[in-house]
């Protein structure tokens, strides 16, 4: 496994397989262009390595020209094809073999085809090391294909992720891990912490309660704790940047986790978006948001009861408890829609015996 710009990639296609695929493409091109003098038009940057290998196998005379184009930003195709080095050679009436590293949506191929028509070539064909039939949306024929691949993001052998990875001799694909990441959701006192303590054992997950981490910092009188206390004591949310950085540090403490139970996080859209980015960088995502649904008056009762012994200042005062519930509805409840849109929201009745509720939650988790 390798890490590029913070993302993990695992080996996918070996150098041997790549060279074998290139041998096959070279065989076909040598057959089709025997006795001719084609111009090989290399599309930089990605195709440089494929072009070097392919051209070293070409048996006749040929010319080599370059253009530079791009359509990727990070791991996503932008759909916008940009030309950085334009076509300079005169290709009128020439036979051209375009050398591409990868054809996916076909946007670059469309642009090159237009370029060939304008240049007045006699004939042109396309040789691509990789072809993604699953994402190809155009009609243009790809004449020579090294390997067909599914719709995964790959790097290596000329292909990059944000500038890195082109020098690798094998192909690597973005690592997806089978982590189970759960967001345990619900208003204050809904039972998130109570249920998380059972679920983490049952599913071997790491439980992160942002409230617990804040309270630990308050107890240890850290800078973070002092800052957080001023908000928590009033039942307000701690600012996003502080909370997101803290959560990120907590996640980093167990890089080999089977998955996480996020309890009390995310509480705002900014936090939800930050969590998506954080998990994506680990090649994983939120599996589900499971919400414990409990009436407000029951919540107040539970928290006042706990306040008698917990030492939690935010449990001691009914007005603060009610403010926490209000903040939940005003600022946090909208996240239901955020996860519903992704089909990841599950509501569970949070009233009843604690073990009954664990069973309700488990039946959701077991179906994920
Ligand atoms: P946090 O610690 O997350 O508190 P909370 O959301 O207010 O929720 P609680 O922990 O009080 O309740 P819970 O749902 O875990 O229920 P529990 O299992 O304890 O956050 C505290 C503060 O930190 C926030 O107000 C905010 O200031 C700050 N903060 C935290 N995360 C933040 C973030 N992401 N962004 C910004 N600020 C953040 O159960 C409650 C009680 O009910 C217990 O006594 C329990 O024994 C009892 N109980 C549980 N289940 C049952 C049941 N089935 N029947 C009867 N009683 C039950
Ligand atoms: Mg809690």
Automatic annotation (TrEMBL):
It is an enzyme of class 2 (transferase). AMP binds at residues 210, 215, 236-238, 264-267, 271, 312, 324. Pathway: Purine metabolism; AMP biosynthesis via salvage pathway; AMP from ADP: step 1/1. Its main location: cytoplasm. Keywords: ATP-binding, Cytoplasm, Kinase, Nucleotide biosynthesis, Nucleotide-binding, Transferase. The keyword Zinc does not apply. It catalyses: AMP + ATP = 2 ADP. One of its GO terms (biological process) is AMP salvage. GO terms for cellular component: cytoplasm. Pfam families: ADK, Pribosyltran. Its EC number is 2.7.4.3. Residues 209-238 are annotated as: NMP. Monomer. Catalyzes the reversible transfer of the terminal phosphate group between ATP and AMP. Plays an important role in cellular energy homeostasis and in adenine nucleotide metabolism. Belongs to the adenylate kinase family. PANTHER family: NUCLEOTIDE KINASE. Consists of three domains, a large central CORE domain and two small peripheral domains, NMPbind and LID, which undergo movements during catalysis. The LID domain closes over the site of phosphoryl transfer upon ATP binding. Assembling and dissambling the active center during each catalytic cycle provides an effective means to prevent ATP hydrolysis. HAMAP family: Adenylate_kinase_Adk (MF_00235). NCBIfam families: PRK00279.1-3, PRK14527.1, PRK14531.1, PRK14532.1. This is Adenylate kinase. The gene is adk.
């Amino acid at each position: 496994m390798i890490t590029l710009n913070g993302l993990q990639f695992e080996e996918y296609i070996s150098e041997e397989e790549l060279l074998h695929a290139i041998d096959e493409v070279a065989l076909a091109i040598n057959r089709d262009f025997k006795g001719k003098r084609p111009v090989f038009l290399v599309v930089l940057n990605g195709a440089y390595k494929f072009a070097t290998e392919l051209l070293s196998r070409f048996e006749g005379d040929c010319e080599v020209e370059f253009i530079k184009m791009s359509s990727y930003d990070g791991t996503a195709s932008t759909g916008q094809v940009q030309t950085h080095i334009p076509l300079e050679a005169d290709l009128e009436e020439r036979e051209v073999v375009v050398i591409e590293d990868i054809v996916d949506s076909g946007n670059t191929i469309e642009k090159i085809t237009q370029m060939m028509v304008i240049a007045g070539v006699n004939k042109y064909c396309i040789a691509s090391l990789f072809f993604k039939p699953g994402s190809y949306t155009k009609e243009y024929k790809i004449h020579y294909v090294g390997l067909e691949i599914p719709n995964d993001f790959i790097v290596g052998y000329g292909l990059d992720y944000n500038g890195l990875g082109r020098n690798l001799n094998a192909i690597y694909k973005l690592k997806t891990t089978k982590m189970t990441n759960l967001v345990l959701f619900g208003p204050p006192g809904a039972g998130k912490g109570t249920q998380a303590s059972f679920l983490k054992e049952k599913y071997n997950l790491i439980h992160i309660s942002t409230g617990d981490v804040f309270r630990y910092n308050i107890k240890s009188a850290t800078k973070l704790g002092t800052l957080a206390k001023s908000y928590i004591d009033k039942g307000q949310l701690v600012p996003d940047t502080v909370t997101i950085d803290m959560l990120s540090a907590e996640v980093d403490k167990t890089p080999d986790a089977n998955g996480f139970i996020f309890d009390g996080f995310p509480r705002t859209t900014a936090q939800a978006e930050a969590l998506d980015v954080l998990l994506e960088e680990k090649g994983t995502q939120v599996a589900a948001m499971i919400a414990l649904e409990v009436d407000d008056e029951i919540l107040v009762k539970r928290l006042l009861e706990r306040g008698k012994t917990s030492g939690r200042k935010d449990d001691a005062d009914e007005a603060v408890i009610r403010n926490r519930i209000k903040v939940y509805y005003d600022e946090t409840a909208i996240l239901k829609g955020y996860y519903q849109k992704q089909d990841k929201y599950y509501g569970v009745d949070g009233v009843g015996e604690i073990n009954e509720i664990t069973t309700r939650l488990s039946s959701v988790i077991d179906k994920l």
